[in-house]
Amino acid sequence: MGGSGSVAAPGLTMLARGEMAERVRAFDWSSTPLGAIETWSPSLKFAVDMVLATQLPMALRWGPELVLLYNDAYAPALGERHPEYLGVLFKNTSADFQASTRALYADLLSGASRGFVFEKLSFKLMRTDRQETAWFTISYSPVPDASAPHGVGGVLISAVEITETVKATQKLRGAEERYELAREAAGVVGAWEWDVRANKVYADARYAELHGVVPELAAAGLPVEAFTPAVHPDDVERIAVAAQTSLQTGGGFSEEYRLVQPDGSIRWIYTRGRSYLGADGKPARNTGVIIDITERKAVEAALEAARVDIDLAAQAAGMGRWDHNPSQGLRYWDARARTIFGIPPDAPPSTSIFEKAVHPDDLPAVRAAVAAAVDPDGSGLMNLEYRIVRQNGVTRWVEVFGRAFFERGVCVRFVGVVSDVTERREAIDRLLRQEETLRLAIDAADVGTWDYNIETGDLVWSDRVYAMFGIVDLSEPPDISAALDYVHPADADRVRDAVARAMDPAIRADYASEYRVIGRDDHVERWLNAKGKVFFGPNGNPVRFVGAAVDVTDRKRAELHLRLLVNEMNHRVKNSLATIQAIAAQSFTDAHSLPQAKEAFADRLVALAEAHDLLTRENWEGADLHKVAERLAALHGGADRFELSGPAVRLSPKTALSLSMALHELATNAIKYGALNAPAGRVRIAWDVSAGQGAERLHLTWSERDGPPVTPPAQRGFGSRLIERGLAAELSGSATIEFHPTGVVCQIQALLEA
Fold this sequence. Notes:
Layout: H1 19-26, H2 42-53, E1 58-62, E2 67-70, H3 75-78, H4 95-109, E3 116-127, E4 130-144, E5 152-161, H5 163-184, E6 190-195, E7 200-203, H6 205-210, H7 215-220, H8 233-249, E8 251-260, E9 266-277, E10 283-292, H9 294-316, E11 319-325, E12 330-333, H10 335-341, H11 351-357, H12 363-373, E13 381-389, E14 395-407, E15 410-420, H13 422-445, E16 447-453, E17 459-461, H14 463-468, H15 480-485, H16 489-503, E18 511-518, E19 525-536, E20 542-551, H17 553-587, H18 594-617, E21 623-624, H19 625-635, E22 642-645, E23 650-651, H20 653-672, E24 682-690, E25 697-705, H21 718-730, E26 734-740, E27 743-751
Parallel strand pairs: 22-24
Antiparallel strand pairs: 1-2, 1-5, 3-4, 4-5, 6-7, 6-10, 8-9, 9-10, 11-12, 11-15, 13-14, 14-15, 16-17, 16-20, 18-19, 19-20, 21-23, 24-25, 25-27, 26-27
Helix pairs in contact: 5-9, 17-18, 18-20, 19-20, 20-21
């Protein structure tokens, strides 16, 4: 910053001058998506230099965010928004402005369009401390940038003020009216009379002044040769021929020609007069008047130049022009407009031909828009998109811009442009369908989405992401650092590492992570499966992080349950095999014949299978003691032979298996030797639960009655040993069998958590 002279900031040349050039240099561009000036691309720097160096109103919107830059000449168009609008993002402009220009900018940035031109747009501007109406032709042009995704870095907005042209047109209309009145009322600027035979021209002062002659001498009469030097050299021969023809034939004449003034300026003259022949048939007298039409000629030239400019702009933008005089029923379409509407070049323009080209469903709206535009009490403007049907049957979409002009409350002119916007409409329709399809897919998959602007820090969540993080207030702006705080501590480092890898320009990994979060408001633990992608700017820095997340809590719980179930099954299969091995070893002994051993073995396997069936129906989460007893009763004599009594008790899988095998052994012995061997015999199974040290204990009593008299066996069989020894060990309790004469009584005590 040293030195006494002004030094241009890096990237801007000294051609960029004025208030806005200084503001651009002083602006903190690093806080915008454009980044610091020294990081700008050559295309952006060149475009900014061009905008700031010109005295024409120009602006530039750059990048996907359409950041605004403009020059001094453009500033009045912003009114009170200047200078705060320097560096403003498109998304921060008014909703109406975004809605009306979003598609235009999208077409330009995507390379779909080569430019747009809007003519004769009026604006209220503050000039010399008062508001004035000004007219502009606004053009939007794509600015190439090789570093941009589609080769287009931004949009150049140029405003060519045509206020003078519009006013000139209005003045021309007034001049033409004055001209017509002058002709009708013989409004003479100058007059002369030429005595042909005496070669004396008598002229008034204005005629003399325009021809560079002293008025007093002209009034006294001078030869015609005194007046001809003022005629423009290019017009001398033409005027001489016209004069000679009139003199020879007699009658009227009218011509337009130029006069060179003493100061070198040119005046256009309209002359009209009559020649008279003498009695001998020879020229005798020539008289007439002149009107100064210099202003009219200047307006005509300016209007023609403006018309050429407008035609070139319309052609560049692919627009057709139309002109309509409603009061006289006159229409005009240029060649481009006829091509767009599919109207043959030789077809006479008429309202019927135009309305025949409009789609029947859109014709009422078109008629209403035209009527509103030509209404003196309306805005005088028309902007409408509608369909047309060409003579070959092809349907196209067109957009029209029109303006009506009024005189004394009557619309005397309705002009505008038309462009074919079929491709744009089709693109918009495709985009809407794609967005709807995506929305339905996201809804169906219960997906939450996020969009994080890394440069601005703005983070946007969908409603589902709020729910995933347990946040109730959906209006609360999300915060990226706070969101990471909600991640389960055991997963936080892994998530942060995945985010860092995705945002590292040297790695640029796709973000994918499964992790737990703790709901901020509801404190519920959830599993999320998140995938995302980071986008990087031209300078290699991350600028945007978007992604989606799915709540996979149910899946994770199912996976955990499945793992536990598989582990439990492995354990139970091993235990079952060990149990079967023990049953086989005890069943097939020398104490029993082979048929008896096979029968006992089969019965015990059935009991084991029944217990497994019951646990399977309960997903191996345990079994209800009452159901275990009911199942036993159904398999061994029916419910009327058993009396069940006790509270609801939930058994663990291990306890349910062991208790089922024990009750099966008791029931088998009762059928063979005990109460179930007699028709009147009954079995009572009663249980209760008591508090114990560390866990509850189950007390179960099996008692038989009304069966044959019981005598104690000489030796204990497998069933008794299974109950008294195996069951006690399995259930961390005790089991005793007593052989009373009235019936067998078995007492079982078990730790319920065993």
